[in-house]
TrEMBL record:
Residues 1-41 are annotated as: Disordered. Residues 27-38 have a biased composition (Gly residues). This is Uncharacterized protein. Residues 1-11 have a biased composition (Polar residues). It comes from Yinghuangia soli. It comes from the Bacteria.
Length: 344
């Protein structure tokens, strides 16, 4: 499932992770930088939200990564680095085969500037922003049996399989299943997914996007300038869903700085936010996770505050733990119970 494939490999597996690469990429604006790095899409999570159509799938689950800033903060793509577990967020369908993608499709997801994805498999798609050799990618798609088809907007659309088709015996790259059924190429981006509808939705623009959707924009503002972010609705986390309408987690940081974990959850009103903030302070200081480990063992310097009707938690990973504590807790359904917030 896409959730378990995203980023956050365990530290025990880090040394053998196929994403490992110690080469850093510098000179790229940090997260949330102004301007239009990588093309016409404004930088940051809010820029990505302005491209994602407000479909039910996108409202339920999305990921964002400023990969250029993440590489700079981590000193490269080594998964054993302080931010190394975060690589893979933004392109979940490719993460388990990321080493093979460059040879198979003539581009490297790990070298993109930014990435975002919307929806959960089988209805998810991703956008990779950066400088790509589109002619080489087109050649790889032809080798995969791809053919051009009409595009609804800018760029060239290629199809290698029918919508939703899954070929477990694909000679090109079996590990990605349907991720390259439909691919849209432009000078600054590669958009890929299992169907035309998912590709169209993840890079749509226009008025009806998550950038104009109240709860998602509020959570993006709450998270602030992050290297990565995930916004998830209840039922998309496993094994036990977090009982809150939406939950957002992210990581802030830079090279030489301790990662800052961020958690944001909307409440039904300011009073509910204040009440929930008090409960969260107690839980994170004295409570234990579902695995029996005290929260104080995995998070340090915890701060819980309210921002209007939103509760925000910031903390540092305890001890020598790498970034991604709250992201991993979200995917495992291990975040504190926030059912009393009643957000929307």
């Amino acid at each position: 499932m896409a959730l378990t494939a995203s980023g956050c490999s365990s530290s025990d597996d880090a040394k053998n992770d196929p994403r490992s690469d110690s080469t850093a990429t510098g000179g790229t604006p940090g997260p949330g930088a102004s301007g239009t790095a990588g093309g016409s899409t404004p930088a940051g999570l809010t820029g990505a939200l302005g491209r994602i159509a407000a479909t039910p799938a996108a409202k339920a689950y999305l990921e964002y990564a400023d990969l250029a800033a993440l590489r700079a903060a981590n000193g490269g793509t080594d998964p054993a680095g302080p931010y190394g577990r975060l690589f893979g967020i933004g392109f979940p369908a490719l993460v388990n085969s990321v080493r093979e993608v460059p040879a198979a499709y003539s581009f490297d997801p790990m070298r993109a500037d930014r990435a975002w994805s919307a929806g959960l498999a089988p209805d998810s798609a991703s956008v990779l922003i950066g400088a790509f050799d589109t002619k080489a990618v087109e050649g790889a798609l032809v080798e995969a049996g791809g053919a051009k088809e009409p595009s609804p907007g800018a760029g060239t659309t290629w199809r290698t399989a029918p919508d939703g088709a899954v070929d477990l015996q694909s000679a090109k790259l079996p590990g990605v299943l349907a991720a390259f059924n439909v691919v849209r190429l432009a000078d600054d981006r590669i958009v890929h997914g299992p169907s035309a509808a998912t590709v169209n939705a993840v890079d749509a623009g226009g008025a009806d996007t998550l950038g104009n959707n109240g709860p998602h924009r509020v959570l993006a503002d709450c998270l602030g300038e992050t290297l990565v972010a995930v916004i998830a609705a209840p039922g998309t986390q496993k094994p036990a869903p977090v009982a809150a309408p939406l939950t957002a987690v992210g990581v802030r940081g830079a090279k030489g700085e301790a990662p800052t974990e961020v958690l944001c959850v909307p409440a039904r009103d300011a009073a509910a936010a204040e009440q929930a903030a008090g409960k969260l302070r107690t839980e994170l200081a004295q409570g234990v996770r579902p695995d029996g480990r005290p929260w104080a063992d995995v998070l340090a310097d915890v701060r819980v505050e309210t921002v209007g009707t939103t509760v925000r938690v910031t903390a540092h990973p305890a001890g020598s733990r790498p970034a991604g504590v709250l992201h991993q807790a979200l995917l495992q359904g291990a975040l504190p119970d926030m059912s009393s917030l009643g957000g929307s």
